[in-house]
Amino acid sequence: MSDESRGRDVVVPERLYKSVTVFSTLFAVVAVVGGFIALDVATNAGRAAAADVNVLVAVLGVLLIAAGGLVYAFASRFRASGMAKDKDSGDETPDNG
Amino acid sequence: MSIERKDDHDHDAWIQEKDLTPVEQSFLTVLVWLDKRLRLVDYLELLETLYYRVNLQMPKSHTEQYNLDNKFWYWYPLYSLGFFSTVAYIVAAISGALLGFYYSPSAAAGSVDIEGATVAYSTVAAIMTDLNFGFFLRSLHRWAAQVMTAAVFLHMLRVYFTGAYKEPREVNWIIGIILLSLTMVFGYTGYLLPWDQLAYWAGQIGVEMSLSIPLIGEWVAQLMFGGFSLGQATLQRMYILHVFLLPFIVTTVIAIHLALVWMQGIAEPH
Amino acid sequence: MTDDNSDDTARTDGTGIVPPDDETPTWRERKERTTGLSRLTYEYFERSRREDQDLREESDYVERDVLAFPVWPHELIRNLALTSFFVGMIFFLSATLPPHLGAPANPSQTPAVILPDWYLYWSFGLLKLGPLNPDLAIIGGDKLLADRTYGVLANVVVVGFIAIVPFLNKGSARRPVEQPFWAAIGVMGVVFAVFISALSIKNLVPMDPHLLFDLTFLVPPLAGGMAYAILKTMREGYMYDLNRRYYKLRPPK
């Protein structure tokens, strides 16, 4: 797979990589879980009739889920030096354990 | 965590010099801003250090150590069955001790308004219906016992199929068989205590089994069941076996079993 | 890797692949020096393995073909992780599935189904082997033993056989591929236990009892034979060329 099709790849210092991983994952988890909770509230856990659905809250839920996924996907472009781009690429040196 | 700041990296300067798109730059700036205030990464680095410290003690798994290609033999989860049955035994012991406060092994007429209900049956019914969390306590005791028995059986299979009974562990294998039998007796005596229909007729089978033993059958039936027909004596004997005799015996034998495992180590292969 | 001290005694300071203790770098230094997480992990594995090996060579522990590793911390740490999950499962099951309390004991009314707990089924099943009890023509077709006595005897034989397994099966083989025969015996035993348990509750099993009785004695040897054939085939193909290091440590007898 070429570098272009895999998207951009930014090498950051290790400490910054940790912050990126921790905070983006945290945000993604909170957003996705919150999004599903919002969807549940809006649709009364999927049991509400179509007329009773709170559209505003439902849209908010979907947006939250999307935002969580987006942030998680966006954060995946940052990597620390020495990390492989993916598991298959022979990025690591042979003496690397 | 110490008060001095560990991280001297100048993130802002780095972000400025690096060629980043505006989105990336603002994304990183926000995260750095959050990181400086919340310092969550510090806690994770504590865990990271702990991870390496633990690894310092961890040897390679046996498949790694011997370059065994066949990772199918990494049977690790099955190796925890022995410990798991011990833990289930402890859970059963604690919940059983709590149940003991409310149960009385009497075959006299009980307070529950069902025909034929004995005191033993009534106390179990009261535990299930009146006592706060009583149903959970009995449930926990029963499930822990069931799971312990299952784990002990599977543990024996694991030991058999990985050849862990071989020299120098023959004695521990035999102790294990004794423990397995004692576990089943433990379960059986407990099964009789509620004194419902199942218990009564399982007791009847027990009497018949004892009677069919050659030569000493009648003597065994008298000793274990207090006679050839079931009644107060049977219930009381089962109770004494279940809460007084077996706990001490089984705990002692488990201690010996574990001490031998501790001294001899865990047998290969993994 | 050459060292200054060239004595041949076993070194017990865990040196060799990794630097000696007084030069051990801090975690930070190590991370900066190495090329990544995997390298770091590798070094710790290597180091602890060496320490184990050195300790083993140094001690007066007699070298045997049985190697083992310590209960603490290796085994217990991993066990704790797994068992804590299963203890959680026990609590979950207890909360969701409380046990049944049947009608009170009534000696005058025999219930349709009399059962011990499930873990006694196999023993219960062995008690029902009456049809196998040989009757002798000499004593006029009478049975030598009562059926019930025969059943108790079957229990004693089974448990007794399991107890003496370590004295029958010796040697350093550990895995089923190394000992197809004993693994096949084990498979046979497990399948037999399942069938004899089903036999003990035959009025609850949706199958002709006679067929079940026959299957109880036909299927286990069949399963054992299949296990034997499979393991034997696997052994041909795989055992000797793969495990050289393994056999250097534990040469087969």
Automatic annotation (TrEMBL), chain A:
Pfam family, one: DUF7315
Domain of life: Archaea
Transmembrane segments: 20-43, 55-75
InterPro entries, per the entry: DUF7315
Keywords: Membrane, Transmembrane, Transmembrane helix
Domain DUF7315 residues, every copy: 8-92
Full protein name: DUF7315 domain-containing protein
Species assigned in the record: Halobacterium bonnevillei
Automatic annotation (TrEMBL), chain B:
Keywords, ordered alphabetically: Membrane, Transmembrane, Transmembrane helix
InterPro entries: Cyt_b/b6_N, Cytb/b6-like_sf, Di-haem_cyt_TM
Annotated ranges, domain Cytochrome b/b6 N-terminal region profile: 30-270
GO cellular component terms attached to this protein's record: membrane
Gene Ontology annotations of biological process type: respiratory electron transport chain
Recorded superkingdom: Archaea
GO molecular function, one term: oxidoreductase activity
Record-annotated membrane-spanning stretches: 78-104, 143-161, 173-191, 211-231, 243-263
Protein name as it appears in the record: Cytochrome bc complex cytochrome b subunit
UniProt source species: Halobacterium bonnevillei
Organism ancestry: Archaea, Methanobacteriati, Methanobacteriota, Stenosarchaea group, Halobacteria
From TrEMBL, chain C:
Region annotation (Disordered) ranges: 1-34
Keywords per UniProt: Electron transport, Heme, Iron, Membrane, Metal-binding, Transmembrane, Transmembrane helix, Transport
Pfam family, one: Cytochrom_B_C
Gene3D superfamilies xrefs: Cytochrome Bc1 Complex, Chain C
Residues passing through the membrane, by range: 80-98, 150-168, 180-199, 211-231
InterPro entries named in the record: Cyt_b/b6_C (IPR005798), Cyt_b/b6_C_sf (IPR036150), Cytb/b6-like_sf (IPR027387)
GO cellular component: membrane
Residues in Cytochrome b/b6 C-terminal region profile domain copies: 61-243
Membrane topology term: Multi-pass membrane protein
Residue ranges with Basic and acidic residues bias: 25-34
Localization per Swiss-Prot or TrEMBL: Membrane
GO-annotated molecular function: electron transfer activity; metal ion binding; oxidoreductase activity
Name used for this protein in its record: Cytochrome bc complex cytochrome b subunit
